[in-house]
Recover the amino acids of this structure.
């Protein structure tokens, strides 16, 4: 059993939201990070991704599945449950995502200033 996802895994000011490099849609990179530790159920993903609606999360998961990055597995017995897991292709994105997050952390102040409309003098 994998440890539960932390509710504050992506806080409101998380650099992952500032990264101008997108891996799919707005939520795809964060979903991939959530699946890094192993398969997760939809309800588990909702904990750190509390800012996304169920409809948008479903759409993002389906797109990641279509792109071959996520595998959806339905377990029928004893009770029906669905899990999402990274495929090897999806797992190969973890390195580039970490590089993008590191870049965002390094340029945090510049990104915040740009979003707030502050122009830095060179």
């Amino acid at each position: 059993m994998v440890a539960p996802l932390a509710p504050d895994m992506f806080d409101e000011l998380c650099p992952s939201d500032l990264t101008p490099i997108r891996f799919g849609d707005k939520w795809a990179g964060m979903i991939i990070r959530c699946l890094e530790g192993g398969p997760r159920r939809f309800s588990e993903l909702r904990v750190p991704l509390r800012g996304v609606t169920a409809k948008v999360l479903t759409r993002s998961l389906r797109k990641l599945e279509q792109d071959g990055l996520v595998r959806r597995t339905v377990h029928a017995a004893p009770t029906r449950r669905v899990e999402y897991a990274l495929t090897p292709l999806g797992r190969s994105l973890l390195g580039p995502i970490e590089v993008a997050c590191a870049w965002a952390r390094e340029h945090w102040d510049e990104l915040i200033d740009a979003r707030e409309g502050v122009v830095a003098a060179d």
Observations:
- Strands lie at 40-41, 70-75, 81-86.
- The mean pLDDT is 84.
- The CA atoms of residues 16 and 30 lie 7 Å apart.
- The two ends are 51 Å apart (CA to CA).
